Amino acid sequence: IFYQKELNIVIVGLQNSGKTSLTDALTSKPFEQDTIPTLGMRMEHFHLGLNTVRVFDLAGQDRFQHMWKRYFARADLLIYVIDLSDSTNWPQVKQNLHQVICDTNRDSIPMLIVGNKIDLLIALESGSTISGRKLPKKTAADQNALEQWKYMAPLLRNYEYDDIPTYSLDETNLYVLRNVETLSKELGLDLKNGILHMPESQIYLDRDLAVFTISCKNGDYVRDIIDWIVQL
Ligand SMILES: Nc1nc2c(ncn2[C@@H]2O[C@H](COP(=O)(O)OP(=O)(O)OP(=O)(O)O)[C@@H](O)[C@H]2O)c(=O)[nH]1
Ligand SMILES: [Mg+2]
């Protein structure tokens, strides 16, 4: 797709996940703390070498989700954004993501799954919480584990889906989702074998697919997304 003159990126995900913030980051606009929920769709441009990239930033509110399908048809790349800091939303996130994957799998549209707001997960690790409740201090063993949970490239070494531990997610252990392997497991995505595990069934993923964790607020790993798009 890099030989094309124009590349269409369609960004979806539940409301408040950070789609508009990611669009701003990709188009070199500053981060905004107080955004307005998107109504319908917003289109932005940026340049990648000689190519023009069009970003379709769709609205995530329930009442707009029926519009997403219309944009899938013209997508060269689909980005699904997840707010990793909201554990209460998790079952809904999974269901919604699975639906989007199923809706677009036949057309083999390359897909990037982006876990956003890792800056809030870091805040959780260091003992403060979003809700203000104090968490127990980290032990040395926790610290070692965290070292291994640094960001990993999508080409994961020694990736074995069945060996990745699962968690009962709540606000005290959400930070495990910063790890791309753990996130893929929680989402039911076997990245090595290209299988999506859903509660009742499984499907083969016939497409390029990667998982990243980022912070639109700090700009962490946004560059990696651009690099991934370039190598597609
Ligand atoms: N801490 C933190 N907040 C973020 C980050 N990314 C986005 N936000 C905040 O999350 C809120 C929602 O961001 P938006 O980008 O508007 O979310 P959206 O997915 O476009 O929402 P809809 O348009 O309603 O679907 C805003 O208050 C942002 O400032 C991040 O990486 N870290
Ligand atoms: Mg928006």
UniProtKB/TrEMBL annotation:
Against SMART domains, the record matches this protein to: ARF, RAB, RAS, SAR
**What would be an example GO MF term here?**
GTPase activity
- Read off the Pfam families from this record: Arf
Provide one Gene Ontology cellular component: lytic vacuole membrane
Question: Keywords on this record?
Answer: GTP-binding, Magnesium, Metal-binding, Nucleotide-binding, Signal
Q: Which residues bind Mg(2+)?
A: T20, T38
Q: Which residues bind GTP?
A: G13, L14, Q15, N16, S17, G18, K19, T20, G60, N116, K117, I118, D119
Q: Where are the transmembrane segments?
A: none
The family database entries (SUPFAM superfamilies) matched by this protein are listed as: P-loop containing nucleoside triphosphate hydrolases
Q: Tell me which domain of life the UniProt entry assigns to the organism this sequence originates from.
A: Eukaryota
InterPro entries recorded: P-loop_NTPase, Small_GTP-bd, Small_GTPase_ARF/SAR
Task: Indicate the family of this protein.
Answer: Belongs to the small GTPase superfamily. Arf family.
Q: Which PANTHER family match?
A: ADP-RIBOSYLATION FACTOR-LIKE PROTEIN 8
This protein is called what? LANO_0H11210g1_1
Give the source lineage, highest ranks first.
Eukaryota, Fungi, Dikarya, Ascomycota, Saccharomycotina
